[in-house]
Amino acid sequence: MSLNLKKYTIITGHYGSGKTNFAANLAVKAAKSGEKVTVVDLDIVNPYFRSADFGKLFEQNGISLAAPIYANTNLDIPALSFNIEEFLSADGKVIIDVGGDDSGASALARYKQFLSAYSDDIEGIYVINMYRYLTGTAEDALEFMREIEAASGMVVSSFVNNSNLGEETTAEVIEKSSAYADEFCSLSGLPLRFTVDTSGKAAVKNRFEAEIYVKKIWEN
Amino acid sequence: MERNLMKGNEALAEAAIRAGCKCFFGYPITPQTEVAAYLAKYMPKNDGVFIQAESEIAAINMVLGAASAGVRAMTSSSSPGISLKSEGVSYIAGSDLPCVIINVQRGGPGLGGIQPSQSDYWQATKALGHGDYQLLVYAPCSVQEMVDKVTLAFDMADKFRMPAMILADGLLGQMMEPVTFPERKTEFEPKPWAANGHGNKRKHNIINSLYLVPEELENSIRNRYERYEIIKANHTEAESYLCDDADFVVTAYGASARVAKSAVNRARAMGIKAGLFRPITLWPFPVNEINEACKNAKALLDVEMSMGQMIEDVKLAINCSKPVHFFGRTGGVIPSPDEVLGELKKLSEANK
């Protein structure tokens, strides 16, 4: 499947929707297809489980990673300590993993002006998960999206159905979310970019086969 | 049965709402902030009150006030914040009030760090505040169990008129797992002791922890300790996993029990007869259960995210009848299954 990535892919979503795992998969796929890829970890909300955890995976695939130097340390500061604009100016494709909800998305507003020069070359992807308690209906998922758009000043242009139940995810669990994705599509008017499939055999539209990179320590 | 994917902290919060918690008072601290953030949003939508207090000390005293009026009340924090609450918890215990306190532990002492830890075991089970008293302490090891124990903690706190604690850690608070929530609780036992307005129809109730006569204070404590005996006899909980034929029993609670279970499975695959004993109630400690679990064991291996705190209860519970070894990581470092497996291999070699 061709990814058809624009210069910038900005990934937002309700926290726990699986943004980070999707971002990692997208980056690895793009790199394997020969693209030069930079991932920017813009998460100022989450203290653990974040793109910065994938340093090794990204290195193996030749992906550049820009993460706050305080990520996964004991310094509890929502600071973006690196020169993001330098990373945003990198050659190739740039994937931006934004923190969850409107509070996480507010970090993106800081770069609105810089990014506005590239507005034709940006894809804003909103990640949804039917099995998350607060986004269990298409209406609720849309409400979170509106809050994220308002806080970030960025417009979402497509969505990814990443409906999953963690370790209980099966093809059936994913397939059951198709109606939810269809409803979100018609409510929001946005195209379904991908349906993420970690089971390897789900019969779904725009299937995006993905690995589970975000693992618990006892699963390693 | 509806399944939802929840982050540990939000699951704690939603479980409290469903258990009929009507008052939450807290102060933000990593890694438990999502508990307060969730309740700030959803408490008002559920006829409840959320207040971000000016400090942890204020928050626990607001809990004391709400509990006095017979309302189900909760506070939540992480290690340094729990230390600040300790005076209020002692007053709540001394006033025979029910409440739920959540500790999503992080590294200590002092400001420590924000990564997960289990170094508040002693504080929770022995000395959260001054005076002769105990807390009910539950140590869940999954997001589902956090939901179940919050529900139970509210019921047990009411039943025995005492504070109950959920002793979680940053890993459990931050991780995501599928859960099923219980139905919303709507029926509650009456609280005839509550100071909630006598309407000139009954004698007024007094909520107090000050006694002017030492014998009266002693009596109040003795009464409380009689309740503790009932709890010890009837309300311990533990999980025994592959213990029946185990040569080596690993003892661990909370997140480190998840790591330990993984190590036990790997050891079994290599032919080492390992088992896991996981206390779910830390106070009261499951004494009978651990003796049953390790009756055929040659040795025990206690695994904690601390320098070794629960190990003292393990040794006491089995009356030092078998050697108890220790492996721990601390300061926010999580032991890996392979590290624990390494310790089991050493034990197996030494006992050949």
Provide tags for this entry.
heterodimer; A: 220 residues; alpha/beta; Rossmann fold; eight-stranded parallel β-sheet; 32% helix; B: 352 residues; 2 domains; seven-stranded mixed β-sheet; 14 strands
Task: Please give a structural write-up.
The complex is a heterodimer of chains A (220) and B (352). Chain A has 8 helices and 8 strands. Helix content of chain A is 32%, strand content 19%. In chain A, helix 4 (101-109) runs parallel beside helix 6 (138-152). Chain A has one domain (8-219): Rossmann fold. With 352 residues, chain B is α/β, with parallel strands linked by helices. Chain B folds into 2 domains: 4-234, Rossmann fold; 239-350, 3-Layer(aba) Sandwich (Rossmann fold), CATH 3.40.50.920. At the A-B interface, loops of A face strand 1, helix 7, strand 8 and helix 9 of B.
CATH homologous superfamily heading of the largest domain in chain B: Thiamin diphosphate (ThDP)-binding fold, Pyr/PP domains
CATH class of the largest domain in chain B: Alpha Beta
CATH architecture of chain A: 3-Layer(aba) Sandwich
> Any idea how many domains of chain A?
1
Class of secondary structure makeup of chain A: alpha/beta
* H-E string of chain A: EHEHEHEHHEHEHHEE
Give the helix/strand class of chain B.
Answer: alpha/beta
The biggest beta sheet of chain B reads: 7 strands, mixed
Q: In whole angstroms, how far apart are the ends of chain A?
A: 29 Å
Largest interface: A-B, 24 and 29 residues
- The number of helices of chain A is 8
Number of helices of chain B: 12
Give the averaged pLDDT of chain A, no decimals.
Answer: 90
CA-atom Rg of chain A in angstroms: 16 Å
Q: Write down the overall geometry of chain B.
A: globular
Number of strands of chain B: 14
Brief sketch in words of this structure:
The complex is a heterodimer of chains A (220) and B (352). Helices cover 32% and strands 19% of the residues of chain A. Chain A is α/β, with parallel strands linked by helices and 220 residues long.
